[in-house]
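User: Thanks for the earlier help. One more: adenine deaminase. Can you show the sequence and predicted structure together?

Assistant: Of course, both are below.
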Amino acid sequence: MHEQKYRWKSKKLREHVAVVDGKKAPSIVLTNATYLNVHLKAWLQANIWIYEDRIIYVGDLMPDSSQDTEVVDCTNQYLVPGYIEPHVHPFQLYNPLSFAQYASKSGTTTFVNDNLMLILQLTKKKAFSFIDEMNKTAATMYWWCRFDAQTEIQQEDAIFTTPAMKDWLNHPSVLQGGELTAWPKLMAGDDLLLHWIQEAKVRNKPVEGHFPGASEKTLTKMKLLGIDSDHEAMTGADVEKRIKQGYTAALRYSSIRPDLPVMLEELEKSGIHYYDQTFFTTDGSTPSFYENGVIDRTLAIALDKGVPEIEAYRMASYNVAKHFHMEGLHGSIAPGRIANINFLADMGDPVPVSVLSKGQWIKKEHEPIEEAFPSVNWEKAGLEPLKLDWDLTIDDLQFSMALGMEMMNEVIIKPYSITCDVSGDTLSELHDQSFLMLIDRAGNWRVNTIIKGFGSHVQGFASSYSNTGDIVLIGKRKADMMKAFQHMKAIGGGMVLVEDEKVVCDIPLPIGGGMSKEPLEELIKQETTLRNHLFARGYGFNDPIYTLLFLSSTHLPYIRITPRGIYDVMNKTVLFPSIMR
């Protein structure tokens, strides 16, 4: 049983009541506050008392006891609930802590995080210890319970078991089941998935789907099987279709699906002005996409597209809390809620001048409070630098397959017949076909093929960042691929671009081989540099980082490179198995 079953123990609750009675002093009192009451959908005036991490009182009174209380005059400011990001992939080169620290400066202080990396790379005990460690920060972090690996991995049945799923769903920091990328299996009759969905529902935890392009009939079936929400709407019509059937629909603005502006325009044209079953998400975008903000950026877009201010701020806070059945803790400025409050200079500007999270100042009068986020011992948490006790050999770089993988965009890949001679140590730069290898991080197996569309001049590239945590190698020259691998190994994991056997640039990822220790501001610079180098070498799409992540992701069509081999997604078969080394 998790030791923190309750947010506040009985003794602490009695202290909260004692503050109201004047027997204890509040930690902070916000006076002359104009705040958004999300329940009345109105801006009201009040004094707000905060004790430690909780809002104690909202009303006209001032406390009887105010010894050591910080009193803040909020005249000419507008207070709204802290923003919530309901769909976070917190391992996109950044780590959960660095992302939270960055996002909180612009008002996003609560996060509902993907647990895929934790469940694939850590033992359950270490994963839960990691979650506990994240709970010690000034941000509020919740988690998903994945029911599938989103790819074809070895021994998946040993990882995704009913006891493991129940333990994850029982964890108080886990708010939902999903996202369910294996919904075709559910549709085809997989009763184990259905059982796990029912286990989530009996615990009053919603289940999130993953239904891009789903028909009305598919959405109906998924609703009958227990799915509550979906973040894959791409148009206003998609949103309408989901709301009609009782889904909560995420309005997405991400690095590969920046659909929010168009969706809002289309909803406006269709005459739909109903927002209670919608909220915003940035869907785990890559670092550089966040240069202009997180949920505050989606809010700014919504306000620009004519969404009423009160509705927009509810979408960024209360609607999320209500969906996850945690409105008693989040999403409003009211007694009993966690003290997550954003202070705005103007109702129409969602970027806060000051931010409170768990009653701590994250930012005050435009100045970030860096000590709000203490450092984490990543090695103790089980996320050490990548340590490979094996070496890549030239014999591993043998390419004889007739079937390759052709990129249609960042993430959609089709099979194609290889048209170049792949028997040598180099490939011509007159075409965009490159060597591609996925190799086990433990060194036990490899999969070799050709990828078309990643670039015509990428000589050697290595990445320990991938969907499965295994190693991706891409390039025109085997010698440069070897050099990139060796450098990636030496720095404890990362992304490395090599040309003429010299390192052009790298992004060290020493946290488990997939995450950076750098602040997001610095990581944005590193990623931008790498992206520009890849663009200059012929990468013709927008987001190479997502390409690397999704090379193995079998929830996307049509063909993938996975630990089991080259996989036909549509027919659910391994076309060419992985080779033991």
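User: Great, one quick takeaway?

Assistant: The chain has a mean pLDDT of 96.
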